[in-house]
Amino acid sequence: MKVILRKNFDQLGKVGDVVNVKDGYARNFLIPRQIAYQATVGNIRALEEEKKQIQKREAKELEEAQKLAVELEKVSVTIPVKVGEEDKIFGTVTNQMIADALKEKGFDIDKRKIEITEQIKSLGIYTVAVKLHSNVTASVKTWVVRE
């Protein structure tokens, strides 16, 4: 049975691909979960319209992410931490701490989007990446200071 994928599916392909699968797999798994629908002439036309809407939405999300990235580049956050001997901090600076500091500045960023490449275990200035979109990443200057 030929089906059109509505969602990206690792084993089969990407959105809009027309793939050939066994009838039972399509009827019992793909179609009920709305991962795919049967490839008919009407569904192919509907898919083209759906692709246009998806492209418009993705373009809008990309534009918003780029605007937010420009604003985030201008921001620096300060994270006060408790320190021991030789300016070593207790624990590490986490994604949540940076997300909270950004929230205080007016940016509502999910902690899972913040990427800390090296663990922050001492005082200093660090650059932290924030992945806003698959193609847009912003850098936030993070100051780790004594509490």
Q: Describe it for me?
A:
With 147 residues, the protein is an alpha+beta fold. A hairpin with a 2-residue loop joins strand 6 and strand 7. The chain contains three helices and seven strands, in the order E-E-H-E-H-E-H-E-E-E. It is elongated and about 70 Å long.
Topology record:
Blueprint: E1 2-5, E2 18-20, H1 23-30, E3 36-38, H2 41-73, E4 76-81, H3 95-104, E5 114-115, E6 124-133, E7 136-146
Parallel strand pairs: 4-7
Antiparallel strand pairs: 1-2, 1-3, 5-6, 6-7
Mean pLDDT: 90
How many angstroms separate the termini?
65 Å
Here the CATH topology of the largest domain equals Ribosomal Protein L9, domain 2
Give the SSE order as H and E letters: EEHEHEHEEE
Structural class: alpha+beta
Number of domains: 2
The helicity comes to 25-40%
What is the CATH domain class of the largest domain? Alpha Beta
Poorly predicted sequence stretches spanning 5 or more consecutive residues: none
Coiled coil: 37-75
Family: Belongs to the bacterial ribosomal protein bL9 family.
Keywords: Coiled coil, Ribonucleoprotein, Ribosomal protein, RNA-binding, rRNA-binding
Protein name: Large ribosomal subunit protein bL9
Which features characterize this protein?
single chain; 147 residues; Ribosomal Protein L9, domain 1; Ribosomal Protein L9, domain 2; 2 domains; four-stranded mixed sheet; three-stranded antiparallel sheet; 7 strands; 27% strand; elongated
Short description:
This protein has 147 residues and is α+β, with helices and mostly antiparallel strands.
